[in-house]
Every structure is written in structure tokens, then in C-alpha cells.
Amino acid sequence: MKVKKKKFFNGRLLFYCGVLALPILQFCIFYLYVNFNSFVLAVTEYDMLTGEKTFVGLQNFRECWELFFGDENRGGMWIRLKNSLVAYGCTLLVGTGGALLFSYYIYKKQAMSGLFKVILFLPSVVPGVVLSSIYKIVMETGVLNLYNAVAAEQITSIINDVDKTFSVVLFYGLFMGFGTQVLMYLGAMNKINPSITEAATLDGVSFMREFFSITLPCIYSTVATFIVVGLTGIFTSELGLYNFFATNAPGNAQTLGYYLYRETQTNATNQAQWPLIATIGLFFTVIVAPITIGLKFFMDSKDPIHA
């Protein structure tokens, strides 16, 4: 019996180790190593001619500061920051608010709710390049012709028009993230105990009263998670600009996320620029990390169920 127990214990231990090996390896490589390497790059300089790396202290941080707050680059960076904040605000108000109401509509099994669920799920399975191509065709044909028919001015491209580019890509970004939020909120709503909603119906609670007094408090943790995670999008979201314009997006439509992604792509083989790019990433992290943690504590304190 002792031998059998020992073999069983060893077999179970090997099974646990095998299951955990891959996620632990991924965590070590893609989180610990990558972030540690970013700190190393931020304080070094790479010489393309000799291939040597030298310690430069805070030199890269000074270059990063000049890049964002120097007189020559300040205008462009402030435009990118403004666009990123506008995108987050629209995602928070229009995306989150609209997704909650739409999720509730499907959750209550209203007219055509099943069809809407399928339509909203499609962007999650169709590649982003395909969706952006379809969106571009629709905007450059149907929407463009409609605009020229009703507007006083005539334009040849609605996406490449300087005054409209940001609005067009912002709508695309909201559309891409809308379906995911709807499905996540719907999943959280489906976990609500049916006896709660049945009791509310028997008490004569109205459709919207049930949403605000029962449904929303029950899925508050999911909503709070999306709000907190969405805050990081200020520095990471590129609104699909790279799919539309590659590295040549108009300056007035760029976001901080697009800027960092573009610099990473264009300098993928230029190791001399890696230290500055890593420093920019750390600069973003220093700004957003305390804000995100503070927002997390604030949202937790407002939880109507677990506060």
C-alpha cells in the first residue's frame, strides 16, 4: 500500500508540474525577462559600429523628457495625448455605457437579441486586417458618397481627410471593442441568480429599475475591471491606425499607443533606438501605474455588494 501511495503521489506531483510548467515559463520569459530587459536597456547605449553596450545612467530618460516636453516635439506629443484621452473618454462613456445597455437588452431576450449576439461576436473571430479593409471600403464608397450628396463641400476621401481621420478611426476603435464588452457583460448577467429577477418581477419592478437596482450592482466587479483595464489604453491603444496607414498616419490623428507601436515596428532591427523606446515604455508605466492602482482601490470602495 505504501508503494502504491508513493507512486500515486509522484504521478500526481508530476502532473501538476507539467500543467504549471508552460504558464510559469511564459511568465518568466514574457513578463520577468522582458520587463527586466527594459530596465537594462533604459540605462544603456548601443553602438551599431562596434556592437558594444555602455552604461549611460539617466541619459535616455533625459532624451525621453526632451522628446515629450521639448519645444520641438511638444506640439505633436500633446496632440497624441489629447487624442488618447478623447479615445478613452469615448470608450468609457459611449463604449461602456452602450455595451451595458445592449448587454441588458440581449440578457432580457428582447426582439432579435440572438441575431445581435452573433453580429457582435463576429469581430472577435475575424482578423483585424480584414475588418479594417472592409471598414475602409465601406467608408470610402457608401459613406463618402452619402457625405458628398448631403454636404456642401466635396471630398475625395473620408479617411484621408485631415479633419475627419481621427473621427473615422475613433469610431472603428469603438466598434472593435464594443462586441467584446457586450459578451463579457452578458456572461456576467447570465450568472445572476434567476430568483432575484423573478422576485423583482413579482414586485412590479420596471425594466430600467431592474437594470440599475439589481443587474448593474450584481455585475459591478466586471464593469469595474473594464474601466480600470481601459485606463491603460491611454498609452497602448492605437485605434487601428497601423492597419489603415501603416507608419504614415496623419499627425493630428495619432495616439500615444500608435506612436510607441510605430517606433517599435520601424526600429525592430535598429538596436541603437531600443534603449530610447524602452525608456518611453517605462515613462508611460511610471505615469499610468499609480493612477491605475488608485482607480482600482476607488472602484473597489464603491462596490455596492462587497464594499
What general form does the structure show?
Answer: globular
Q: What is the β-strand count?
A: 2
- Measured on Cα atoms, how large is the radius of gyration? 25 Å
Strand line-up across the major sheet: 1-2
User: Which percent bin holds the helix content?
Assistant: over 70%
Biggest sheet overview: 2 strands, antiparallel
Uncertain runs are: none
- Give the averaged pLDDT, no decimals: 84
Number of helices: 13
Sketch the topology as an H/E string, one letter per element. Answer: HEEHHHHHHHHHHHH
In percent terms, what proportion of residues is strand? Answer: under 5%
Can you summarize this structure?
The chain is mainly alpha-helical and 307 residues long. Helix content is 75%, strand content 2%.
Q: What does it look like?
A:
The chain is mainly alpha-helical. It contains 13 helices and 2 strands, in the order αββαααααααααααα. α1 packs across α13. It is globular, with a radius of gyration of 25 Å.
Write out key terms for the chains shown.
2 strands, single chain, 307 residues, globular, mainly alpha
What is the fold's blueprint, element by element?
Blueprint: H1 2-42, E1 44-46, E2 53-55, H2 59-69, H3 74-107, H4 113-125, H5 128-150, H6 165-190, H7 194-202, H8 207-218, H9 220-231, H10 233-236, H11 241-245, H12 256-266, H13 274-301
Antiparallel strand pairs: 1-2
Helix pairs in contact: 1-13, 2-13, 3-6, 3-9, 4-6, 9-13
